[in-house]
């Protein structure tokens, strides 16, 4: 596990982008695993800026997002498809036909989970962007999710609901359920790019890197992956010194 601590938010975005760019340079038709949340926004800003200034193309790129809320209309600003379109897809030249996000509006949720798992089983994600929850979750795999899980529906913990309330007009508007890529599927990516910023992540980051490998901290499984880059800001790294 390679751990890098960024000095500024700009550097955080630049360091994360450098990891994506290495993969893109090697294979312009690579498959990116993408994440939502506030943490990857500096990365997406760098991708957009680089696309604009240097013309890096995503025309041949395929992407898989980690998760989506259940029941939120696609055009709701906090649906993850809206988030991704606003923060990244509309700012680069990716072909929207190559973008994959679980459909949280599917009438048959188990069939939708099976569809997404099947797509992932036939893909090879070259680099998967990840964030970490204050409780150690990765994507919406909450504590005690089996490490070999595939795409499934989750009922969000109270902690995740209250963490995400800042994006909505109050806690009651936060969806209670989501579809998430499973930990087993995340782990299959060739490279994992874990991003964490803010002091509310310091404890989870410590447990991910130094703690016991246990489903009670889903991110601790990263210790077993052969190629992980962790990019932290100083606050998220505070307990590692
Ligand atoms: P955040 O979410 O980037 O909004 O902090 C990360 C996560 O909960 O996985």
Description:
With 241 residues, the chain is α/β, with parallel strands linked by helices. It has one domain: Rossmann fold, CATH 3.40.50.1360. 31% of the residues lie in helices and 17% in strands. The strands form 2 sheets. Strands 1-10-9-6-2-3-5 form a 7-stranded parallel β-sheet, with helices on one face. Strands 4-8-7 form a 3-stranded antiparallel β-sheet, covered by helices on one side. Helix 2 links the parallel strand 2 and strand 3. Helix 1 crosses helix 2. The longest helix is centred in the N-terminal third of the chain and has 18 residues. Bound molecules: 2-phosphoglycolic acid. 2-phosphoglycolic acid (PGA) binds next to loops.
Number of domains: 1
What's the SSE pattern? EHEHEEHEHEEHEHEHE
Question: Number of DSSP helices?
Answer: 7
Level of helix content? 25-40%
Largest sheet: 7 strands, parallel
CATH architecture level-2 label: 3-Layer(aba) Sandwich
Strand content range: 15-25%
Overall radius of gyration: 17 Å
Number of strands: 10
Distance between the termini: 16 Å
In short:
This protein is of the alpha/beta class. The protein has helices at residues 9-26, 41-54, 80-87, 109-121, 158-164, 183-187, 202-210, and strands at residues 2-6, 31-34, 62-65, 67-69, 99-100, 127-130, 152-155, 177-180, 191-196, 228-233.
